[in-house]
Specification:
The protein is of the alpha/beta class. It has 3 domains: 57 residues; 37 residues; 145 residues, no CATH class. 40% of the residues lie in helices and 10% in strands. It has 5 helices and 7 strands. The strands form 2 sheets. A 5-stranded mixed β-sheet has the order 4-3-7-5-6, covered by helices on one side. Strands 1-2 form a two-stranded antiparallel sheet. Helix 5 links the parallel strand 5 and strand 6. The C terminus is likely disordered.
């Protein structure tokens, strides 16, 4: 144990060699620490390189992902895929279902096709025939009778009494269209009104086309029927059992036109009934035979 200096005596001061020793120790310590600092710098540099390499790798992966995304979008727009499903085109169908090398038809298939062809030809012929018939009906070349129709009244004999031509205004007439020409009755009725006749009814009527026009009345309408026969050329008279003096005029498909008003023969005569047997006992005068009236020179 070192001796302590006496009380009151100052301790000895260190010699000049102590600071030198301390500096040397510090230098050695500094020299010993130098390798450690260099190793730390190498570790820092290595970590920086790794970080940069990782960053480059991340950028490369991001570019690859972006390229793959663009490629998928382009593929989705080429028409071969839709919502992740592959679209099969004609080429794909042909590859999946190739045609047989020898496409021979079975006898049943051949017979069926022949039957279909025959039926098609028949239907086409029916259509063409229908069009032709419609055209003929519209042109008046053919008349179609729907139903039995109203039988034409036929008296046993034609009235043979001599009749005077009555005034047009005293004749009450019904006009019927028995032809396929639409509006024929209306046209004739308008002309009769102009000539002073009392037109009561305009309608359609089916009758046998025995003449261009048929005049029908009862026994009390002989005079009116005679008047109208002079206005309708080639007309035929038929009598029924009506009680009034009205007269019916039925136009057939053979009807052309009325006799001109100024050319109507107003001489006395008898009714014309070409189909009745026996014929009238009194010979009809000119213009009352149902033939076209010959102008008499009267107004």
């Amino acid at each position: 144990m070192p001796s302590q200096p006496p009380h009151g005596v100052a301790p000895p001061r260190p010699s000049s060699t102590q600071p030198a020793l301390e500096d040397a120790a510090e230098d050695e310590a500094a020299d010993g620490d130098a390798p450690v600092d260099e190793a730390a710098d190498d570790d820092v540099l290595l970590t920086t390189r790794q970080r940069r390499r990782a960053e480059r790798e991340e950028r490369r992966q991001a570019k690859d992902e972006a390229y793959e995304l663009r490629r998928q979008r382009k593929k989705a727009k080429d028409g071969t895929t839709w919502r992740g499903h592959h679209i099969v085109d004609s080429r794909g169908l042909a590859e999946a279902f190739p045609e047989p090398e020898t496409p021979e038809l079975l006898p049943s298939t051949v017979n069926r096709r022949i039957t279909h062809a025959v039926v098609l030809v028949l239907l086409l012929a029916l259509v063409v025939a229908g069009v032709v018939l419609v055209g003929m009906v519209q042109r008046g070349e053919l008349e179609l009778k729907l139903g039995a129709g109203k039988p034409s009244p036929t008296p046993l004999s034609c009235p043979a009494e001599m009749l005077k031509y009555p005034a047009n205004k005293t004749v009450v007439v019904n006009v019927y269209n028995g032809s396929s020409v639409e509006g024929a009755a209306g046209k004739v009725a308008a002309e009769l009104k102009k000539r002073g006749y009392q037109v009561k009814k305009i309608d359609n009527e089916v009758i046998d086309p025995v003449a261009p026009s048929v005049i029908i009345s009862g026994p009390g309408g002989h005079a009116g029927a005679f008047n109208l026969q002079r206005n309708f050329p080639n007309s035929e008279y038929l009598e029924d059992d009506r009680k009034d003096a009205t007269v019916d005029v039925v136009l057939t498909g053979q009807f052309g036109d009325l006799v001109a008003a100024k050319q109507v023969d107003q001489k006395a005569g008898v009714l014309s009934c070409p189909r009745l047997n026996p014929p009238p006992s009194v010979a009809p005068s000119a213009g009352a035979t149902g033939a076209p009236a010959v102008p008499s020179g009267k107004p």
